[in-house]
Each structure stands twice: as C-alpha cells, then as structure tokens.
C-alpha cells in the first residue's frame, strides 16, 4: 500500500494530503490510509486497521482513518469480490468532469474491455459521507467511477488491480481530452462493440 501510494504521488494522481487507499486483509479487517497525511510519504506504521463497520482495531496515537472511509466501507460491504479501493484526484479525469465530458462513450476498445463503460456520478461534497451516497447506485456494476468535480474511484481484487485501473482511467481521460481539443471524437459502432464481447 505504501509503495502504491508513493507511485500515485509520483505519477501526479494525488497531491498534498489528497487521495486514500484501503485493502481487505485475510481476516476480513480493513487496512486504510490515515487522514491528513501526504500519501507519497507514508510509512507502513501509519496505516490503520479497522473492522468492516469502521471501528478502529489498531492505529498510531493521533492518526485517524481517511475522511472518505464511509465510501470505502460501502464498497467492501456491498461487494465480496473487492479486496482494494483507491480514491485519487487524477488531473485529466477531474478536468473532463469540470466541463461535463464523460468517459461513458464507446471510444477505445481496450479500455472498454478492461474498464467497461465508466460512469460519472453527480457532485458530492468531499469528506462528508455524501460520496458514499452517490457511488452506491453504480458501484455494484462498475470498477472505475469518476466523481464529478472531485476525482476517481477504482476498485479491484487487490491493490495492484485497483491501481492499474486508475492508470488506465487517467490515460484514457488524457486521450479523450486531447481528442476533444483536436475535433469531435467518433464512437465505435455497435458492430465493433459486439466483436469485443
Ligand atoms: Zn478526494
């Protein structure tokens, strides 16, 4: 988790104290990053262990779990197949959401295969629990989501899978943003999509 958080920081997917990561441990408890810390400089000792209801099992004095904990717990409670959750603020993903461009159109075949259609959920005030409410309707069916005016949410069986989905998501957002600067993107046809499935 520390290595992946550092990689996210290096890649510019997060800045300052932003972003949060969690993972389901073998005993069913949840490992999560602390609030108010730079994720690029985390140490393993700073990570917090909680139960599935969010009750602290172990944490260094003075450290509390991420302010987006409710969003993470919602996913673990709903989906038994998910072992890791990553929330980031990738620049192109957020920029597209600011101008109302979604990633829910059939544009790039390999992205459709790897991520499916990516929904953008309505704006929710960060760190208030509202994010949990807006992701609830779509998280059962999607492994990558854009939080409008805010960031990304990717999930996976483990942290690496959730991280790779974040990389693919931001790479796609950058490609789509560039395409919109060059002209009007052309969508894949139904026939093209059928051949992918
Ligand atoms: Zn955030």
What are the salient characteristics of this protein?
alpha+beta, 197 residues, single chain, L-fuculose-1-phosphate Aldolase, 8-stranded mixed sheet, binds zinc ion
Word description of this protein:
The structure is a single chain. This protein has 197 residues and is of the alpha+beta class. It has one domain (2-196): Class II aldolase/adducin N-terminal domain (L-fuculose-1-phosphate Aldolase, 3-Layer(aba) Sandwich). The protein has helices spanning 2-10, 69-78, 91-98, 109-115, 130-139, 159-182, 190-196, and strands at residues 20-24, 30-32, 48-50, 56-58, 84-88, 120-121, 144-147, 151-156. It has an 8-stranded mixed beta sheet with strand order 4-3-2-1-5-8-7-6. Strand 6, helix 5 and strand 7 (144-147) form a beta-alpha-beta unit. Helix 2 (69-78) runs parallel beside helix 5 (130-139) and helix 3 (91-98) crosses helix 6. It is globular. It starts with a helix and ends with a helix. Zinc ion is lined by residues 18, 87, 89, 126, 150-151. Zinc ion binds next to loops.
- Quaternary: single chain
Rg result: 17 Å
So how many helices? 7
Per CATH, the architecture is 3-Layer(aba) Sandwich
Name the poorly predicted regions. Answer: none
Helix/strand order, N-terminal first: HEEEEHEHHEHEEHH
Q: What is the end-to-end distance? A: 33 Å
Write down the domain tally. 1
Mean pLDDT: 96
Bound ligand species:
zinc ion
The biggest sheet, with number of strands, parallel, antiparallel or mixed sense and barrel status, is: 8 strands, mixed
Question: Structural class of the helix and strand makeup?
Answer: alpha+beta
């Amino acid at each position: 988790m520390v290595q992946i958080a550092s990689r996210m920081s290096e890649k510019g997917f997060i800045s300052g104290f932003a972003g949060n990561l969690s993972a389901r441990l073998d005993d069913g408890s949840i490992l999560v990053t602390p609030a108010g810390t730079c994720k690029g400089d985390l140490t393993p000792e700073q990570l917090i262990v909680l139960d599935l209801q969010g009750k602290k099992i172990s944490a260094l004095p003075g450290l509390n779990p991420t302010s987006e904990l409710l969003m993470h717990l919602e996913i673990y409670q709903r989906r038994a197949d998910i072992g890791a959750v990553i929330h980031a603020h990738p620049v192109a993903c957020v920029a597209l959401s600011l101008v109302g461009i979604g990633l829910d159109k059939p544009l790039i075949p390999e992205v459709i295969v790897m991520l499916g259609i990516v929904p953008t959920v309505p704006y929710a005030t960060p760190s208030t629990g509202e994010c949990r409410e807006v992701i609830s309707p779509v998280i059962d069916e999607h492994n990558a989501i854009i939080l409008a005016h805010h960031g990304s949410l990717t999930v996976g069986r483990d942290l690496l899978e959730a991280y790779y989905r974040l990389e693919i998501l931001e790479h796609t957002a950058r490609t789509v943003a560039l395409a919109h600067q060059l002209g009007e993107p052309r969508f894949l046809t139904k026939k093209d999509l059928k051949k992918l499935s």
